Amino acid sequence: MSDPRPIIDVISSHPWVGRARHTGDEVVVRPHADAVAVRPVLGDLVREHLEHWSEVYEWIYLTSDGQPPEADLSGWRASDTGEPLPREHMLEWIDRTVELVREGNPRCVLELGCGTGLLLRRLCTDVEHYVGTDVSEAAVERLTAAGLPGVSVVLAAAHESGSSQVVTALAGRRPDCVLINSVTQCFPGRDYLDAVVSDALAVVADGGRVIIGDFRHAGLAGRYYRWLSSDDQDAARRAAADEEFVFDPKLLAEIATRCERPVTMSVRAKTMTADTELTRYRCDVVLHVAPPAVPAGGGETPLPNALLCDDPGGVAPHVLRERIAGTGAIVGLDLDDPTRLRVCAPSGDPVDLIPPAGPAPADPIVRFVAGRLAEAVRDHLARVRPGEPQPAVRVEWDGTR
Question: Which of 158, 260, 301, 307 is most buried, by the most CB atoms less than 10 A from its CB?
């Protein structure tokens, strides 16, 4: 029997719908706040977004048989060509990331999103205890089967660092490094990033570090799309279709200001020698929690990044890294202009002195909800009012709750 209520009431009865209204010949809906929530409970639409990425990586890892376990580079492809990134470049990428983690001499590491163990396998011999988490059952099973000493691997998402499984694996320890490397591109958006980083800051020991690594800088997004295509329309199409989460590092400083302990932040340039998407448009951020001392900010005058600027005074990040080797300084990115490099102290700047982040591309969850919620509404109408004509359904939501 068909539901006799007005169609707006029928649509509004779906648990994912917060509000519905007629606009001309279509029905405009807005998601229910609970369906797009990250805290206190993960909403259904956010969960589905995360499950999509979980399925992608599960397939990648299940089909990666034959790759050497210590260098399983499954899924690493160039954005411009779709071809696998050069193996030598990826091995250098691993080396630079391992060096970054080792800077802090950690004894206990919690890695959220350890994948096939590219970093875990190299770092676990340096520390007393290493806990890795991942959403792929295949990855967790392989790393567990490897029987690496001092290593525990848990099936858990990035927002579950406080789960009982992770707490049990840590065995009463507080990590002095929480590593979140090359996974934020799969995050639904800013609310999820906030939850993950806030939890990481809460769990890390005094004097420890939270590393958010290998993410695309929102301040370079326009350059990235034009690098993929010189045609303006095609570049705009690629931007609109992009499913990855990109953000300004300043957003991490905003999150860290709510930490109850002092935090400083440094933004690191990628310093591999090859000129690829990874070197041009990605960066690493290190959040230092309750550091023993906070040096004054400053440093040398920012230099144009030769990979991004046609400037006679420009220098490539790997060249600058070689110039300052042995000085204790690092190659950073200028907070206001990510096309410029800074030579600065590793400890960075107090987060409460860093200005707010600027505008950024829409969170991926916005586009996902636009499609998935409209589909759910149509399915709901077909079920409760079978055989009846359906109105056009449009989702109107900008990512705010």
Answer: 158
Whether cis (ω within 30° of 0) applies to the bond prior to 40 is yes
Q: How far apart are CA 221 and CA 217, in angstroms?
A: 7
pLDDT tens for 8-35 read 999 999 999 999 999 888 999 999 999 9
In a domain, 52, yes or no: no
CATH number at 99 reads 3.40.50.150
Q: Percentage of residues in the chain with pLDDT exceeding 90? A: 82
Summarised one tens digit per residue, pLDDT across range 233-281 is: 999 999 988 999 999 999 999 999 999 999 999 999 999 999 999 999 9
pTM: 0.94
Beta strand 108-112 pairing with 177-181: parallel
Q: Is residue 74 part of a domain?
A: yes
Task: Report the C-alpha gap between 236 and 82 in whole angstroms.
Answer: 19
What's the pLDDT score for residue 276? 94
Whole domain around residue 151: which residue ranges? 64-298
Q: How far apart are CA 40 and CA 138, in angstroms?
A: 29
pLDDT 10s digits, 324-344: 999 999 999 999 999 999 999
Q: Residue 155: helix, strand or coil by DSSP?
A: strand
Q: At 239, give phi and psi (nearest 5°).
A: -65, -45
Residue 97 lies in a domain: yes
Does some domain include residue 56? no
Region class of 77: left (phi > 0), else alpha (psi between -120 and 50), else beta: beta
Q: What's the domain count of the chain?
A: 1
Looking up tokens 């010949």, which residue turns up?
Answer: 25
Q: Which residue has the tokens 């930490």?
A: 259
Cα–Cα nearest to 159, from 136, 119, 134, 192:
192
Specify the pLDDT at position 221.
94
- Backbone CA torsion sign across 100, 343, 316, 311: positive
All residues at 6 or more sequence positions from 185 whose CB lies less than 8 Å from its CB, including other chains: 215, 216, 244, 245, 246
